[in-house]
Input
Amino acid sequence: MSRLALVISVVLVSFNSAHAFELKPVVGINLGSSKVSPEAASTTYGGRNGLLLGALMEVGLIPGLFALEFGALRVPYGSSAVTTSGASITTVEASWSVIQLPLVLRMTALPIVSFGAGPYMGFALGQVSTTISGTGLTTTSSDSDLTSAAKTDFGALLSCAAKFPLLPLVDFLFDARLLVGFKNLTDAAGSSVKINHIQMMAGAAIGF
Output
């Protein structure tokens, strides 16, 4: 009987702490990786790491159980290729910024923990910056327009988030996400470049 009472109390706490709307300003780290096909011989590929920031909005569907989350995040994008030929090493890095628009269906598993999944879209900002460096080379950087393929991106994400009460309508938020890119970001015939991300964000969840 005591176990049943404990379960009921946990569910009640979850329902009472749920808000119809939550605004979530966030900042965090984005760890990017690129998946290139076909891979060139003696070449190692990587992504771009950097700071992300933005805001999310959560709308309760079933109080304390399901919610829909959407928003906009400014995310660093990029790819790198390090080619080794004997004692010579050449590095080519490309970087740009993207506004990501995630749409997440979130389920509350415990009063402070929720899991989510859904699609995301990305829209590039500005130009791509390309840097070339290496053994015996003078480092050069240049800006150019993005190819049509790299101007948009889409994929799917998984999220695990935790909220810790700070004030009656304010929680501290931590959100860890895995994003898998589905779109080929290169126009080169016979080639494919897709970008994946690990995102770790912190911020506030402000209830209304």
User: Anything to note?
Assistant: DSSP finds one helix and ten strands in the chain.
